[in-house]
From TrEMBL:
Residues of the full protein shown: 168 to 451 of 451
Domain EAL: from-to ranges: 24-274
Organism ancestry: Bacteria, Pseudomonadati, Pseudomonadota, Alphaproteobacteria, Hyphomicrobiales
Identification of the protein by name: Diguanylate cyclase (GGDEF) domain-containing protein
Native source organism of the sequence: Rhizobium hainanense
Amino acid sequence: RSKRRGRGQITVYSREIAQEMKRATQLEQALRNAIISDSIDVHFQPIVSLANNMVLGFEALARWNDPDLGFVSPAVFVPLAEERGFIDALSETLLRKAAEAALAWPRELFLSFNLSSAQLMDPGTSSSILAILTRAGLDPHRLELEITETAVMSSADTAHRIIADLRAVGVRISLDDFGTGQSSLGRLREFIFDKVKIDRAFVSRMNSDRASEHIIKAVLAMCEGLELRVVAEGIEEHAEAAKLKALGCAMGQGYYFGKPTDSASTLRYLQTHYFDLSSEREIA
Ligand code: C2E
Ligand code: MG
Ligand code: MG
Ligand code: MG
């Protein structure tokens, strides 16, 4: 009897595995088509000054709405693109679209763009980014690249070279999702970052959990000493924005200030939320 059940289980498992593999292949094929047909879009989410709620820049976030699969999260398709070797093609189109959109914004605003870890292992990345900026006509000083701790560690020498080359022409580097990766503090000693983005896991728990608040305070004090600018991610409520402002956090990002929207809606957002006070603006 147990033998029969055993065999039955094997059948069930293999059917599940087969279905999973079929789904993965479908997803990969759909992603390949979406990249070829240029149908992956880029949306923009505001990053604001917590002191006065002024918009300082936008983070570009990839959006893929497939006719058959529906909305697929970048947390799913970006890793898949990395795994299957499509990330260069995908990232190049996304940066091109993002840079073109940023040209329509006031010149003081920065564009923040996520780099994947695979790109930090590829020595061609810096020249390909600079070529896209040149072609689009976007000043490298307006670009920030968001990278994660794990990404810098995966291929340290190449990553450091890419970062150094880009910083030399004015591109700034943000450490994304700070507090979630491995070996956070050691990275900050290397002085390769301009900004630190505190992961939203800490922000969302800040008002209910004392530990998260203490961690945020410590990160802010440490970043002040290291002359790193800080962005708090995932601010959804007024109370979170107010607390972070009181703690001295310079910048915030989250649904409370604005969800990611397409480039046309971003321009409308700027019409209502951006006032040209260039002389009074602090440098982000
Ligand atoms: P990330 O870079 O940490 O981006 C922030 C994520 O938090 C985004 O998710 C954003 O939509 C979400 N978010 C922002 N504010 C709030 C909030 O108040 N509450 C909540 N619950 N979520 C908020 P998204 O767009 O799904 O992107 C997920 C991740 O996928 C990104 O995390 C980034 O690692 C990656 N990603 C997105 N676009 C790109 C891209 O163009 N290139 C690369 N390499 N990675 C990308
Ligand atoms: Mg990011
Ligand atoms: Mg993040
Ligand atoms: Mg993230």
